[in-house]
Amino acid sequence: MKIAVVGATGLVGTVMLQVLEERNFPIDELLLVASERSVGKTLNFKGEDITVIGLEEAVDRRPDIALFSAGGSTSLEWAPKFAAVGTRVIDNSSAWRMNPNNKLVVPEINAAELTAEDYVIANPNCSTIQMVLALAPLHKAYGINRVVVSTYQSVSGTGVAAVSQLENEEKGIEGDRAYPHPIYRNALPHCDVFQDNGFTKEEMKLMTEPLKILSDDSLKITATAVRIPTAGGHSESVNIRFNKDFELEEVYRLLRETPGIVIEDSPENNEYPMPYKAHGKDEVFVGRIRRDPSEANSLNLWIVADNLRKGAATNAIQIAEYLASSGLVS
Cα separation of 80 and 59, whole Å? Predict the structure, then answer.
């Protein structure tokens, strides 16, 4: 199998290579693809130095699967070119997520919707993935009416420049800023660009993408997304109102039995999900599970995941694994 990683030199691309190696994904030939300024550089994969190539050459070499993490504009231009030569594209940008002609996939929830006609497949937003993985079994059991989510997101979700800003500020070094304000010892209620409705693009992703993944336009979701000075891992406070009542023991069982979820919920022992514990892991961690006494049929959850792994690279590679195992590529 011939695999291309587009955006191989970026934060998510680097993690994609790590995950491909860790999961021993079946690769006969690996193409590392990046912008022209990175062409000719070498990256190591399984002890082998591989030279980075450009997008045109990658298309000409017709990979079976292309894992894209190179930004929306690159995806809009190049994903159709790869698809035209028979490549299955799994795209990590927001370019194709809400397009009605493209599937938006979290494999544990809706990979079975993929068909031979799907050549450009969208990877959801990092914060959406971890939240919807916990919502899916509960929605099936009780019917979700409304969700209120507040996120506490790592600077790594913005990229290398934001990580550098935090590191510089920690050391008292003046440098370029990815954010309009300091991030060290601060919290910015400003993830992505503000829209005309007062919400940011990140918040709108949280409010719209779950409806598509869960195939239910009746869901009501509102979100506030906050950037905090953690180097890795996103956290979410999620309040859910169901259409019918629930038993907490059953909620625990449903979440425990959901592939990809780990429950960490022992407050008396100071055990609950935290970003530093989720770092480098592929699971979504759920804790602080408790009934909301202020509203009927309502539940509070605290959800944490590594945004570069399950929130991006791992989810994309799990989609690729499904394509391979289902015979959609060979």
Answer: 10
